[in-house]
Amino acid sequence: MESLRYLPGVTTLQFNEDACVGCGMCTKVCPHGVFAMEGRKARLRDRDGCMECGACATNCAVGAISVTPGVGCASYIIQTWLKGREKAECTCC
Amino acid sequence: MELKHVDNDAEPCCAGSSGEGSCGPRPLTGLPMASGPVEDDEPCCGPPPGPPSSPHERPGYQLCGFVRGFRDTPMGPVPLVRTRLNPADRLATIGARLNIGRNDYRVAPGLYGVGSPDPDSPVLVTANYKLSFDTLRRELDDVNAWILVLDTRGINVWCAAGKGTLSTAEVIARVKSVGLERIVRHRRLILPQLGATGIAAHKLKKGCGFEAVWGPVQARDIKKFLNNGLKADPAMRQVTFTLAERLLLVPVEISLVLKPSLWVLLAVLILSGIGHGLFSVAAVWQRGPIAAAAYLSGIVAGAVAVPALLPWLPGRAFYIKGLMTGLTGGALVVFFNWSGIRGLEAAALILLAMAASSYTAMNFTGATPYTSPTGVEKEMRQGIPVQILALFVAAAAWVGSRFIA
Ligand code: SF4
Ligand code: SF4
């Protein structure tokens, strides 16, 4: 998967290392290996690999991670522009 | 249990004949005055009868083809499902891939089993999208397990998690509604990793008493995962996007552009007819097909070539990849029609193909497993103006070429 990369420097992912308790959950749920364990803390290994799915933030029990989750779908984003976020529907899946 | 409504019309027992008495005289049974021997076991005429009905069939309902039997549990019978797909399953798979009647590919939510599951067997959780369910069960040959099917409204695991129909609350509600704690002794659910967007594992235990273990991304790794003592290799935790996976998405991409394409083609034909005499049907006839071909080459370039060549096309933004394939597609159309067109027309055709391809390619972002919404929005802010400009210049050049001549 590392051969397919998307735009660098855009993700909204934020990681607060001080809050991390080292449970390792984020390394299990991330489908892009963005996090890795280093000793008793998680480490942001590949920030630009993040697709903002939100799995890590949802599953970090101590709230050390934040991200604005969503689907990277053009037709959905067009709808959010036209109709607003509440009424937009993702038609791609 | 998946139950389908069955047509009430009783079929005549003998092919080719209908109405009373077609099976020959038979003694009336069930009536108080009936007398004589009851010939219940005797077949009527025609071919020999099939096997008796399953004791689990109910009036007005029919068992699904993938149910092969039942297992009794303290919560009642649980359907056991086949791990092999039958022709009907395969047909449904093709239909779903072609995006035909996608709402029809649902499985009734609830508990199922494979093999001969017992109270210690693992519980695998999945979505009630038929393809998700089929993909899981076909990997469970020789496995004894329970399958807990969530109500994700017929949407696959990842999309349902993103849309919120696959959620912590749905898992908790489903575990309770099937009475899972009375069926299994352990307190563990194996969740599909791609559901993590919608399910917070740490909230499950409090909600339903079951702890969550994240299974692999792909169903094909599930056996290895089970045999490994519920451990996933790092590779099992990452999504892939191979050529085969990308090509599987092409039919859906095409189906999504079909309807808007009819409008574009209509516009293309109308523009082709505009000229000195205001509008000429002859011109539509002569120029329309070439312009339509340029547009369609753009669609193919965006919806087929971009997914196929994704890793090798330069640039990271999809609209740029689409501009490149569109340039090639448009150039090919021009090349094969060279005798009939002039320079300005050629430019118009190529720009039209580029705009169509770029837009279609940009829409493919939604089907990929690695594009972020922030990134897509950024590329759209750059790409859409380029596409509109290309389209505008293409239309002007196409119409203008008839006035200049
Ligand atoms: S899930 Fe949160 S607490 Fe656990 S390792 Fe990751 S960042 Fe640290
Ligand atoms: S948002 Fe998704 S892709 Fe990004 S780091 Fe978290 S789990 Fe990984």
Tell me what the structure shows.
The complex is a heterodimer of chains A (93) and B (405). Chain A is of the alpha+beta class and 93 residues long. In chain A, 22% of the residues lie in helices and 13% in strands. Chain A has a two-stranded antiparallel ribbon with strand order 1-4. In chain A, 41% of the residues are buried. The model of chain A has no long low-confidence stretch (mean pLDDT 89). With 405 residues, chain B is mainly α. Chain B is built from 13 helices and 11 strands. In chain B, the strands form 5 sheets. Chain B has a 3-stranded mixed sheet, sandwiched between helices. A two-stranded antiparallel sheet of chain B has the order 1-2. The radius of gyration of chain B is 29 Å and the shape is elongated. Residues 1-38 of chain B have low confidence and may be disordered. The interface between A and B is large, with 44 and 48 residues. The structure holds iron/sulfur cluster (2 copies). One iron/sulfur cluster (SF4) is lined by residues 13, 29-30, 32, 34, 50-56, 67 of chain A. Residues 13, 29-30, 32, 34, 50-56, 67 of chain A line the site of one iron/sulfur cluster.
Q: Any descriptors?
A:
A: 93 residues; alpha+beta; two-stranded antiparallel sheet; 3 helices; B: 405 residues; mainly alpha; three-stranded mixed sheet; 13 helices; 11 strands; elongated; disordered N terminus
Q: N- to C-terminal separation of chain B?
A: 71 Å
Give the integer mean of the pLDDT values of chain B. Answer: 87
H/E series of chain A, N to C? EHEEHEH
Cα-based radius of gyration of chain B, to the nearest Å: 29 Å
